[in-house]
Specification:
The chain has 91 residues and is α+β, with helices and mostly antiparallel strands. The chain folds into 2 domains: 30 residues, no CATH class; 50 residues, no CATH class. Helices cover 24% and strands 11% of the residues. The strands form 2 sheets. It has a two-stranded parallel ribbon with strand order 1-2. A two-stranded antiparallel sheet has the order 3-4. Strand 3 and strand 4 form a beta hairpin. The longest helix has 9 residues. The model has no long low-confidence stretch (mean pLDDT 77).
Length: 91
């Protein structure tokens, strides 16, 4: 299955999601589309900086929605980031 452009998106996505098992769907990106993913760093209580995990890039998901979309536990993704610091950064 290949989605070549936005006109094929709905049909291709629906077809892919209806498959009973593992399935590969190639999505061809627009060649000149700009992509600006943003990851931020957090200052720890001791003054060191730690980058937020890639799973938590901007635009941020609501805090209650993020765990529902994670494959690995949040504790693993956030590693050494102190939970109180994370809560302050995203609220």
């Amino acid at each position: 299955m290949r989605i070549r452009d936005a006109t094929q998106w709905r049909e291709g996505a629906c077809h892919t999601l209806r498959q009973p098992g593992p399935f590969v769907c190639e999505v061809c990106p627009v060649q000149d589309e700009g992509l600006w993913l943003r990851s931020s760093a957090i200052t720890q209580p001791d003054g060191t900086m730690i980058a937020m995990p890639l799973e938590d890039m901007s635009p941020l998901l609501p805090r209650d929605e993020l765990p529902e979309n994670m494959i690995i536990p949040l504790e693993t993704a956030f590693g050494k980031v102190h939970p109180d610091v994370v809560a302050r950064q995203v609220t």
